[in-house]
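# step 3/5: fold
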Amino acid sequence: MTDAAPQTETAPAEEPRKAHPWAELAPEQYRLLRLAPLPTDRATGARPLRFVQLGRVERHSPEQSLLRLSIQLPGQALRKEQNLFEVWADHRNKEVRFGADSGFAIEPINRGLGRFLLAQGIAWARQKWAHYKVEGGSLTAKDAPNEDTRLRRDHFLRAQGFDVEYEDSRLLKARYSAGRVSELYDDWHKEKLQILPLLDAATMLEQADQNLATQENEIRRLEQRIDTFRRDDTSLRFVIACLTVFAVFQAGLLIWMATH
């Protein structure tokens, strides 16, 4: 009696999930943002004056619409999912979703950028689809690694009109939700963050260039005065040395005359 080898059927390989045709859209419009200087925060550190770039792109189809906003920091490399915010409008279900699938990670934090991006997305959605429902989502502990971050996150969501409800007593899992787009608010802290028109940005650059030119002229004038003082100092040192030698000679001559 021989043992027959078991026959197994090879399961068909799953087809890779196709990326959405809008998944890799690059920004098409740019704006300059001014982050106002703020007092140093004990949790996030110094908050100096900064300028960042806002990128924007949107697409529309009969089934859905997309707004993608991104923040670029000069001289700083970020991960692909950082500083990215999306708004998807589903016209078939008349529903709007705020936030990218990868989450919502903002750098620098505590500068008003998160609330600004959410406000821009709400304003965009309210233009045509204020009657659409809002798709809720989950909030996990990794989104807020400490208590201060969690409180800031919940505050800015509630300030924009979202409800935040926790699912456990340890405040680790929560959900955000809202009724319709029309119930949300599109304001942000304008004293923390301002959109700079191109003309204002050009004016700032011209003013900075004029200030630099003024400072260079002042530095040049001070350097000339220092050179003059150095020459005068050298002359005075020579005169003092000559007077010292003459005084010593006179003293020696007087001593010689007194002793002879």
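# step 4/5: annotate
The chain has three helices and twelve strands.
# step 5/5: archive (pending)
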